[in-house]
Specification:
21 helices, 70% helix, globular, disordered N terminus
Amino acid sequence: MVQRETVEKALFSSAVGKPLLGVVLSWWADYHLRFSGLSRADKAAHLFWLAGPFLLLIERTPADIWLTVIGVWFLVRSFVNSDFSWAQLTWVRATFIFLGCSVISGMLSVNPSHSLTEALIWFRFPLFAIATVCWLGRDEKLVYAMYGALGIGMLLMCGILSAELMIEGQKQGRLAWPYGDLVPGSYLAKACMPAFLVVVALISAVPLRLASLFGITVIGNLIISLATGERINLLLRLCAAGLATFVWRPRFSRSLFIVGFAVGSVALVLMIYPHLMDRFVSSFVDSLPGSSQSMFTGFILSSLQMWKTAPIFGVGVDMYRQNCVGIETLVAGALCDNHPHNFYLQFLVETGVVGLVSGTFMFGTILWPLIAVALRSPDNAIARTSWIVALAFFWPVTTTADFFGQWNNLFMWSGLALAMTSVNFGGSATPYLKAS
């Protein structure tokens, strides 16, 4: 049987020389040893955590229950053990500061009961990340297991969407299985982002035969993302994958080939299917800010007009949709929707300048430790790619889903929390576990 030390080399270095079966058997032995040292409660918690990628494939309610239960479980565990050391961490404090700003904004809004409730229940998402980083994701091998579960979930989603294409086809250029909502591309682009980027990074370093298998997986994933009709999520995956090919032991000729082949495959599909070309190229270009037909320019205009009414603390969490009524008649070209379609614009409108500053600071305290640990971990593919996950989610010049919305947060925080665990084992420095 392959020793545990060999497993790490087999999957996270360029020396992949052992049979896949040996790797699987070694992993199984490793995880058995890890679980045997846990208490019954911790065993149950970790198994429940590892079920997450599959619960996310069902619907919003099971996924939300999974995420919320883990957060509450962590809080109860902290009270029982009288251990709140995690509250001293810089990124946790930054999250509390942003929550405080959001609560104040909600209290000052025209509908304080609704806005305050939305702000408070949003905290279950970062609480899940705290539980993952400071509790469930402390063991390197169990984190690898979660990456494996997420990879399986990613392949299952691709299979489900392929079946939808063959059985029902697209609905107005979009796919909806298994949810009934037009969001499966978000599962692939956000929840699965950490595992996807590791696969991309491995292509540069593993032997050619295995690299070809990984390459086929990546290309297939991107084509399925294209089929979902979700433009920003496809762009998110393409850009993140492009970065990932060069951050861990890159072979530049192979990396350039993979990037070129991926872009070429997507371009070929667009040329074959004119309706996709129109949605992903013509309509996308027309929707960019600055275009006369851009709806996002309209959201910017309505947001700035609304921000002027409450510049310090904003109009309140989830109050954009209510306060936007009538703005279209006041400002030429302004448009209204459920949210402004940009995190930073939403912070400015709904939580004011204080929310924009504290929200940006919160993002920075999450991103910087990931960059720091990546610089100190040249031999770990997970650590080298995790910062790309945060950068992709927090990139300011892009359109986004509702920052306080359920679907977006389920996908984004589940992927982000897993990426954040890299600081627990990637290199000698552990910024997330070091009190400020």
